[in-house]
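Sanity check

After download, print the first record. It should look like this:
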Amino acid sequence: MEDNNLDNRLLTVDDLHTSFFTPSGEVKAVNGVCYYVDRGEVVAVVGESGCGKSVTQLSVMKLVQSPPGKITKGHVWFEGRDLLTLKDKEMRQVRGAEISMVFQEPLTSLNPVLKVGTQISEVIMTHSRCSKKEAWEKGTHALEEVGIPDPARRMHNYPFEMSGGMRQRVMIAIAVACDSKLIIADEPTTALDVTTQAQVMELLMSLVQKRGISLIIVTHNLGLVTRYADRIYVMYAGKVVESGTARDIVTYPKHPYTVGLLQSVPKLDERKDTDLIPIQGAPPSLLDLPKTCSFLPRCPYANELCGKLCPPDLREVGDNGHFSACHLDIGEVEE
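Expected structure tokens:
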């Protein structure tokens, strides 16, 4: 774990392990993940589908379905409390009130047979002592805060009567309605058009600045978060393989997987046509992880030594808390 000033620390995830026990064997979806979030900070967790980034956040919220899932090891410290030791009743008081999660697909996250206002009010009444009328008024204000026009009328709409962007704003309104200190946004721009993606991201950033909350953005799109995140954690095969400031990750990537993600992001270049370079191969099976580096079969920089060494641990490779889990020093990579 990085050695940093703890005075401003909000969340610390330490050596987190989450597995799914299936008839085929143990799927190690999260395999020793460590990261932290400071107050008022925007942190991005990036990686391909299946790398464990969403399961990590579900583990933090203790929302992993059991069976087949189980958190087998680790600690999740939030303001001095280890969330993994809390009972279900205690954890329900944390969810929505102190930590809120914006799920990936708002259409399936919202109840289709209940009005939007009913769903927002329910969250508010669960975590605060107020009447149904007061909760409805607070919900209306929350919709107004996230930029939904005519919020009083929209409170009476059903989710299917709203566009994808509006439904996502409703999910964000639910997340901020009870003044949460941390919002976890799991793929908040999935299935949205480019213009709406930018609007949703700008909305989240405005809430961070206005309310002073912390934000975790979970996404596969490294290009999306480089503009917004203070720090980035890159995950692969259930582990963090690189972490650092957004500037260091983009300008001085040290792990071959991070380089591959950056090379697969479209760029506007007036000087020449730049082809996207996909990462060859596929991630390893989490049922049977290799005893060497998990990225070895796909790594264009690998040498004979990589195939003989144990999986690399995170090591410091630069200033400002830049860490990489790679035996090699690939140096600065040209954009």
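If your output differs, re-run the checksum step. Summary of this record's structure: DSSP finds eleven helices and twelve strands in the chain.
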